[in-house]
Amino acid sequence: MGTDQLVAAVELGGTKSIALLARGHDILEQVNVPTATPDETLGQLQNQLKTWHAAEPFSAIGIASFGPVQLQQDQPDFGCMLDTPKPNWSQARVAPVLTEPFSCPWKFDTDVNGAVLAEYKWGAGMGCNSVCYVTIGTGLGAGFLIGGTPIHGAMHPEVGHIKTRRAEGDSFGGACPFHGDCIEGLVAGPALAARFNADMRTVPDDHPVWQNVAHDIAELTAIVLLTTSAQRILYGGGVATLRPFLLPMVRERVVKNLGSYLPFLDAQSAEEIICAPALGNEAGPRGALALALAALES
User: Which residue in 27, 30, 123, 177 has a CA-CA distance of 20 to 30 Å to 162?
Assistant: First the structure.
């Protein structure tokens, strides 16, 4: 249904945001906008949507946003940002600003829930019942999909703020303004900058602190495997993408810690279970597109 209809989508990221126009799953146009203040960023994105709509009306909108965001439709702030470490964005009216000018169906979700939906439909999660997408970049977030449906509840999963067991001898205090050494405060971009006192892109692969970073990501991976029985855990975002040597280190530690307990996990299967997204950097914008197509279906 709706495979030939025109749809619009927005992926709102911490550093840059993307608006796209698509016919079915074929992307026709894509525009990047720096994520500055809410007024600037949402205003530019809304104007782009208006331009496209004036040329040819689209039939649905999908919005995938960094968070935390309000996903409960019965709440007055549905579609808005909740308290977030990103300056000026707390309570930003994300979905209302982007959808109010248009009388068409729309869906709103987290960027990671969008990405996991895209990987399930078109990427590394195809054929799986349980998929997790983790992004490690400016922050750390995770989206979960069970039986084709992204997980929602009282809110949405906030995996970045789980506290994991620390590596022996690791005294780094963490960089999360809310929780210090939660997993986001240990391995996201600002945490790595503080750990290394340098841009993580310039740090040699054999720097000993990477051992602690791999330990921390492996702890998170083990938690996800034990709690969700995920068939795929996909690591995207700038940290995972720019430092690809981390994933083999993570797999080795996860198998060492859990392999004798979980019958489906060994060194060979770990390469398939714990991997990079098949869609690469397209997982985010295609996640917003997947939400737009889901809005059409509903």
Answer: 123
Contacts of 221 (CB under 8 A, 6+ apart): 233, 250, 254, 274
pLDDT digits (tens, 9 = 90+) for 24-51: 989 999 999 999 999 999 999 999 999 9
Q: Which of 174, 91, 93 is nearest to 140 (CA)?
A: 174
* DSSP codes of every residue in 50-116: HHHHHHS--S-EEEEE-SSB---TTSTTTTSB-S-SSTT-TT--HHHHHHTT--S-EEEEEHHHHHH
Are the beta carbons of 87 and 43 closer than 8 angstroms?
no
| Backbone angle region of 16, left / alpha / beta, with phi > 0 → left and psi within -120 to 50 → alpha | beta
Q: What three-state secondary structure class fits 117? A: helix
Q: Is 141 exposed, middle or buried (0-12, 13-18, 19+ CB in 10 A)?
A: buried
User: Could you read off the pLDDT of 202-249 as tens digits, one per residue?
Assistant: 999 999 999 999 999 999 999 999 999 999 999 999 898 999 999 999
Give residue 215's pLDDT.
98
Tokens representing residue 210 in the block: 């990477």
